[in-house]
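#onboarding

Welcome to the new folks! Below is a worked example of what a typical request in this channel looks like: someone posts a single protein sequence, and someone else replies with the predicted structure as tokens. Don't worry about understanding the tokens yet, we'll cover that in week two.

Example request:
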Amino acid sequence: MTPAVLIENLQKRYGSVEAVKDVSLEVRPGEIFGLLGPNGAGKTTTLRSLCTLITPDAGHLAVSGISVVDRPKLARRRLGYVAQEVALDKVLTGRELLQLQAALYHLPRPQIKDRIETVAQLLGLQEWIDQKSGTYSGGIRKRLDLASGLLHQPDVLVLDEPTVGLDIESRVAVWDFLRKLRESGTTVLITSHYLEEVDALADRVAIIDKGVVIATGTPSELKDRVGGDRVTLRIREFSPAEEAEKAKELLESLSCVQEIIINPAQGNSLNLVVEPQNDALLTIQQALKEAGLPTFGIAQSRPSLDDVYLAATGQTLMDAELAGAAGRDPKAEKKRNMR
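Example response:
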């Protein structure tokens, strides 16, 4: 079966900045595929390269078997792209904007009216479609943006942060729509900062860090690879590094503990992988008490996609975002304190 999306050894540099080092992934027809990673990881550059908006320095990219570099015009007909920022002319109505989009795609005139009615109904836009888009709420604006990406009936819909900034009700509405879209056979490639969004929607996931794919699989497969339950432990609200190291050495001797990572970005908290047993917390707390170490906070949970990211990079996705926002290079912290 021809992949809906095929990316092999993609590379892209902006001057001295290597935005994408080597990204390879394959998206199957009719699935929702999620891309996870912090700002600056290379997600948007990957999507923009796929959608013919920028030219890659190296690599092969194809949509439904069509090279986006060699045959960009034909590839665009198979693609729908919805960027993170909604760009609508506030003076035009929703219908007028969709008519403009139809003209840009050279859709046959007899089909335009029916296509607009179809996407409006699909996205629940009937009530607002003849109102000026400048009067729309954020959720309705996003729905209209999605309608524009679907108007020409693409094989693949590419979404860059489709629910960022939306309220819970609007996010749920977009989720429901994407599930219906998958059921109809459309392939969806999505990036998101919301881990629970990708976990709930994606059939498969790729995690990108510093321009490289570091993990691929279904959400369940990725979490199973991490293994065990997760325990987050804080000796104090902000523990000295020496005290965190002492606790780590102590807890490593426990049979129920499989792995420990000290997280400096969160007050030198300890992130543990433990055997999924009911008395793991009690065993840990008892060991700390006997060693004269306090317990400020402790919690146990099943693995999440953030745990997958933590295991692969030595920091959580939020920590990576904060490091990027602060202008720090988290590379030096990667896998710090990992065994």
